[in-house]
Predict the structure.
Amino acid sequence: MDKEKLASVNSQLLELRKRLLREVDSAEEALREDIVKPGDITSVATHPADQDVEGLDAQIAVSQNEELLLDQVDAALERIGTGAYGACQQCGGTIDAQRLEAIPYTSLCIDCASGHQDPVEKPVPGEPRRFR
Ligand SMILES: [Zn+2]
């Protein structure tokens, strides 16, 4: 991979990293608000808790998923720094350029990834993902 391409991947990853950090932040903030919300016993009693608990679960899932992604993005940035970017971390083969374009933070070639179901191995979302 040439330097120009690598530089553009690098800035793409940095952008993604910023976005993920924001998403993690806002998910955690939402979580805190839900937990810290002063307990109004009467409103809790009149509203079945199920819905709130489900919302909380979804927020936890969002924040955990974003953190996993962040780890992958960080690792990819590190690989750019060490010159290992674009090499499969499992078999050492070259990761397909098209695959890197779709998933710039991937660490596995398509062969290794398909035998290795990683829930984070998804194309970069263009919009915030929806859960449920
Ligand atoms: Zn591989």
Observations:
- The pocket of zinc ion is lined by residues 88, 90-91, 93, 108-109, 111-112 (CB under 6 Å).
- Residues 3-85 form one domain.
